[in-house]
Amino acid sequence: MSGYVGNLSAKQAEALEQLREKVKDILPQCPSQSDHFLLRWLRARNFNVQKAETMLRKHMEFRKHTNADTITTEWKPPEVIEKHLSGGMCGYDQEGSPIWYDVIGPVDPKGLMLSASKQDFIKSKIRDCEMLQKECDLQSERLGRNIDSITMIYDLEGLGMRHLWKPAIDTYTEVLTMFEDNYPEGLKRLFVIKAPKIFPVAYNLVKHFLSENTQRKIFVLGANWKEVLQRHIDPEQLPAVYGGKLTDPDGDPRCRTRIKYGGQVPRSYYVRESMNVKYENVVSISRGSSHQLEYEVLLPGSVLRWQFSTEEADIGFGVFVKARLGEWQRAAQMKEVVHSDRYNSHLVPEMGSLTCTEPGVYVLRFDNTYSFIRSKTISFTVEILHPNNQSPSKNSSSIEASGQ
């Protein structure tokens, strides 16, 4: 049985009655008291009544803490989020569910996070979820049948490494966790369109925060994505830019009055110039010396990502490739893949990435050979982002050399 109203097994029906009895003290304060509502929590916990009760009680505490009941009417995001964070509801699918669009490419994650707090981002997503739930309720009234989930379309054209900036990914995973914990069964299906080659790396960073049930609802579409969307969405409800007939009143095929497309954040919005980053390693490099970090990359398409800062003075940095792990080589004996240069990482933290097209031993080299007076202290974090189900790797070996 599906676990939905009208299609319950005897055991599922019993679980529903048990849950209703267990939460009767908080049910009047819940967004809904219907069977449809309670079944969402049961399905999310495979009809384990105790786990569903715990989840729902935690959600009610969440609603109280975030003022979720009034967030759509009494809270407004900062202007920079309103103007430069993409997304919007536009149209309905063939079953009447609202459609939400996220347009990732134009978004400036670093600019946004230097201009607003993490709490404001999360609150803006809570507001979106509450707004969409209210729209589902309105659709239920209009259509005379229960609508309690949405269709999402992720437009990934232009997705790049700047979108995988670690503070932004950390915030996004918090948003996903919030969504999974507090809006169960709110997603009907998610279509990913125009995914670039880096998509597997990006998805691998966040998929561990998604339930198996949510992952089953994600469909990565190929070149025929317009055709697939048209199977689920009538042309009159689909923006023209996505293969339908819907436009704004002025004929805009992107429907910008309903979907925000992000964009570069002007520096006038910045409230800080850099993020406070927690680094995982610290190393001291003697004057006239260099320090090499070795990372063995086995999977083509993996991304090597680094971030570092120094105390008081600059440092040289470059990335090389060599054949064997653990065998020290001079810089001139290795293949240079990221040009060595001196970075003012004592003023602004340095961050970068490299897509490793070939397996090999990649060497991150910190160069202090030009300094005959001062040693340097480097704080750094390095990760290998895999394009499959593996978690990011951080293991390395280090080699320090004098005068090299």
TrEMBL record:
Domain (CRAL-TRIO) ranges: 77-250
CDD domains, A to Z: SEC14 (cd00170)
Source organism, top-level taxon: Eukaryota
Segment forming the signal sequence: none
Ranges of residues in domain GOLD: 275-384
A Pfam family hit: CRAL_TRIO_N
Protein known as: SEC14-like protein 2
Organism: Coilia grayii (Gray's grenadier anchovy)
